[in-house]
Amino acid sequence: MVFRVAVAGCTGYAGGEVLRLLLEHPAVEIGALTAGGSAGSRLGEHQPHLWPLADREILPTTADTLAGHDVVFLALPHGTSGPIAEQLGEDTLVIDCGADFRLTDAEAWQQFYGSAYAGSWPYGLPELPEQRHRLARSHRIAVPGCYPTSVTLGLLPAVTAGLIDGHDVVVVAASGPSGAGKALKPHLLGAELMGSASAYGVGGGHRHTPEILQNLRLLGASEPTLSFTPVLVPMSRGILATCTAPLADGIELGADVRDAYQRAYADEPFVHLLPEGQWPQTQGVVGSNSVQLQVTVDRTAGRLIAVVALDNLTKGTAGGAIQCMNLALGLDETTGLPRIGVAP
Ligand SMILES: NC(=O)C1=CN([C@@H]2O[C@H](COP(=O)(O)OP(=O)(O)OC[C@H]3O[C@@H](n4cnc5c(N)ncnc54)[C@H](OP(=O)(O)O)[C@@H]3O)[C@@H](O)[C@H]2O)C=CC1
Ligand SMILES: CC(=O)N[C@@H](CCC(=O)OP(=O)(O)O)C(=O)O
């Protein structure tokens, strides 16, 4: 069976990555390609790497242009997905790459996004406990933010095994600028970006903070606290997240944390615990849907340290979205998804 798929936001980074992966997917046919102001132009003007679709005309993003598809990916700015999604048939599988339906707490949404709360959809991180079942029956899926995917996978085994209780979690995560989207932003001009690294959203203000806390609670942390600092670095793609937290009461400094991580991820097709002594690098995952991680205990500080690398556009957005699509359509979860990255 072949599923007909539309992509809204096809000129952007996330939409472009969804299309790159769909072009190699054996069970889909690419239908409508839509965007905003670029409607009327050809895809090749915006996404030169997607040459098989270069001549395709970009349509406006409306319920009409997106109707008649088995699957619709929404890769649109925050606040744009809700009004479109509610006009799409309930039988259509709608996968939102944006934040509109990720948070279950309306107050947290209001505080961090400031717009009307649209509700929540099943959360598109299959590696969470019991989540594959939920996604397999769902017609609506909210793809996680790229930082929350990295931090959640970095700490999942530690929280579920009770090695940390979720208080005093500190995360510093470096990301390439593709995470910020294609729209022009003065601090993302080449001259400002090249050769420099800069922290942003410092002091608890980044909108991924409530999403990470939501995930830590879901994993069993009763009252998690988080200090999250993202850092912009000059590489096109990739996230390297360093996540630390104090060992829970009763956990000894010599605890075998590696064993918990090995058990948690032994059967995961996309999450790879590196051999002891090797630490993740973004270079190892770029262009793939793989996550590489390593864990240890800093005995001087009494803290667990997990380091995670992923490609923000692949596992962090489009690859994760297609992994969820596969589950929801009853396909093998790994179909069409690269596991090996591009190097150098
Ligand atoms: N980049 C990343 O690493 C990640 C992105 N995401 C999410 O994916 C979504 C898209 O992000 P990204 O691709 O980075 O952003 P881009 O700015 O690169 O692309 C945005 C896309 O949305 C279209 N668009 C803009 N405004 C409208 C509108 N009013 N109506 C219809 N289409 C519109 C643009 O079309 P046009 O060319 O016509 O303006 C473009 O195709 C966002 O919600 C983002 O949060 C999620 C995780 C990671
Ligand atoms: C480098 C950079 O700017 N990254 C983005 C996060 C990208 C992401 O996951 O985005 P959404 O939650 O918007 O879907 C940011 O910090 O806002």
Annotate the secondary structure layout.
Blueprint: E1 3-8, H1 13-22, E2 28-35, E3 59-60, H2 63-66, E4 71-74, H3 81-85, E5 93-96, H4 106-113, H5 131-136, E6 140-142, H6 146-160, E7 169-175, H7 190-193, E8 198-199, H8 209-218, E9 226-232, E10 239-246, H9 257-265, E11 271-273, E12 291-298, E13 303-310, H10 314-328
Parallel strand pairs: 1-2, 1-4, 2-3, 4-5, 5-6, 7-9, 11-12
Antiparallel strand pairs: 7-10, 8-9, 10-13, 12-13
Helix pairs in contact: 1-10, 6-8
This protein binds NADPH dihydro-nicotinamide-adenine-dinucleotide phosphate and N-acetyl-L-glutamyl 5-phosphate.
NADPH dihydro-nicotinamide-adenine-dinucleotide phosphate (NDP) binds at residues 9-15, 35-38, 61, 75-78, 80, 97-99, 145-146, 178-179, 181-183, 312-313, 316-317.
Brief descriptors of the model:
344 residues, alpha/beta, Rossmann fold, Dihydrodipicolinate Reductase, domain 2, 2 domains, 7-stranded mixed β-sheet, 6-stranded parallel β-sheet, 25% helix, globular, binds NADPH dihydro-nicotinamide-adenine-dinucleotide phosphate, binds N-acetyl-L-glutamyl 5-phosphate, NAD(P)-bd_dom_sf
Number of domains: 2
Gross morphology: globular
Point out poorly predicted stretches: none
What is the arithmetic mean of pLDDT? Answer: 96
Q: What's the order of the H and E elements?
A: EHEEHEHEHHEHEHEHEEHEEEH
Estimate what percentage of residues fall within beta strands.
Answer: 15-25%
What is the overall number of helices? 10
Q: Can you identify the CATH class of the largest domain?
A: Alpha Beta
The CATH topology of the largest domain: Dihydrodipicolinate Reductase, domain 2
